[in-house]
Design brief:
The protein is mostly helical. The protein is built from 16 helices and no strands. Helix 12 packs antiparallel against helix 13 (219-231) and helix 13 (219-231) packs antiparallel against helix 14. The chain is globular, with a radius of gyration of 23 Å. The N and C termini lie far apart (80 Å).
Length: 283
């Protein structure tokens, strides 16, 4: 019997599927340039491919190049309306400084049913960055009305309430969220922040330690733990912890300086370079 060969279109489809799988893996591994290149090649062959457009946009946004994602996202959105694509487009528009367009688009997306919860979160983020905190709170509250057990939404609401200095409400929400997801590191760190602001340094330090057990390389959390230790009068442990946080991460020097200078048991420096020099020295 004669052998049947695969059709060219079937071969192309298989190749594109493989490329998409590789792109998704690269995105997951933080290899954003590779993910971008692979997704771009798939989109050249199939301009309405939702998965490829999503991966390309995420890779570009991760590189702070969201403006480049607008055109391909708009093209796909016109051909195949999709709430995920619209949400990414809102993020790209906001990142490009077109925040009013982003907010208008995201408001429409949040009206879709069934609801697409990331659209509410992106809308709240855009509103918050525009200084419209009350509207951001309302956006998350409307999402929680549709999905009251969504822990990530509870966390978003607590962060926004903290921005309005409503620490009591934030504490209540975070306590509930922690009971539902006890190993969620972001819940631990935000709740610890509330306790730190309330002056309960020992309880905040315990939560920061728990979060660091889950994410040992989280330099920001380690810097916040330092603030607690310094306020508790444990200067040696605090400064040693801050040196550990700063090691190889010069970008957190501002957070480190704040922890040292603003603590009631901290130190005073005239220049940021003096802070960096002090923290680079052995304890």
């Amino acid at each position: 019997m004669p052998k049947h060969s695969s059709s060219p279109s079937a071969n192309r489809g298989h190749t594109q599927s493989q490329a998409l799988q590789r792109a998704a893996l690269a995105l997951q591994m933080g290899q954003f340039i590779e993910a971008e290149q692979l997704a771009f090649e798939v989109l050249k062959a199939s301009r309405a491919d939702v998965a490829a457009a999503s991966i390309l946009a995420r890779a570009l946004l991760a590189q702070n190049r969201g403006e480049e994602a607008i055109a391909p996202l708009e093209r796909v959105a016109r051909r195949a309306p999709d709430p995920g694509i619209e949400t990414l487009l809102g993020a790209a528009l906001g990142g490009a400084g077109r925040r009013s367009e982003a907010i208008e688009l995201l408001r429409r997306t949040t009206e879709r049913r069934p609801p697409f919860l990331p659209a509410f979160q992106e809308l709240a983020g855009q509103l918050s960055r525009a200084g419209r905190i009350d509207e951001a709170v309302a956006a998350i509250e409307s999402a929680l009305a549709l999905a009251p057990d969504a822990v990530d939404l509870q966390l978003d609401l607590a962060r926004l309430l903290l921005a309005r200095n409503e620490r009591g409400k934030a504490h209540e929400i975070l306590t509930k969220a922690r009971a539902a997801a006890p190993g969620h590191p972001d819940i631990l760190t935000v709740l610890a922040r509330v306790l730190l602001l309330d002056g309960d340094y020992a309880a905040a330090a315990d939560l920061y330690r728990n979060a660091l057990a889950l994410r040992p390389d989280d330099a920001v959390t380690r810097a916040d733990l330092t603030a607690c230790l310094l306020e508790m009068g444990d200067r040696d442990a605090g400064e040693a912890n801050l040196r550990l946080a700063l090691r190889g991460r010069p970008q957190i020097i501002g957070r480190a300086t704040y922890a040292l200078v603003h603590s009631s048991h901290g130190r005073f420096f005239f220049r940021p370079s003096a802070v960096a020099k002090f923290l680079s020295e052995p304890g």
